[in-house]
Amino acid sequence: QVQLVESGGGLVQAGGSLRLSCAASGIAFSINIMRWYRQAPGKQRELVATITSGGITIYADSVKGRFTISRDNAKAMVYLQMNSLKPEDTAVYYCNTHPTWGQGTQVTVSS
Hints:
Layout: E1 3-7, E2 10-13, E3 18-25, E4 34-39, E5 46-51, E6 57-59, E7 67-72, E8 77-82, E9 91-97, E10 100-101, E11 105-110
Parallel strand pairs: 2-11
Antiparallel strand pairs: 1-3, 3-8, 4-5, 4-9, 5-6, 7-8, 9-10, 9-11
């Protein structure tokens, strides 16, 4: 059974940083495309960042230059380093590898 477990969310002031982690199990992690999504209250879930098995990364325009997605295949982990956080980054962040979702971790950025 495929499982994704996120951690690392919390409350941070604007301009601060957080690092999200996602632990994967039950999959051949190294060959999977991994993604981070987020969903703010009253809004649709949006794709934030993608990392391919070969390490190619793709970002939403809203987070380019501030967020960095990375992976550790040996540990079956994917990370999202978030810097220069803004109040509009407040959302529940989800780890995804199709078709599986994690339970989400709340990120709140205060102004």
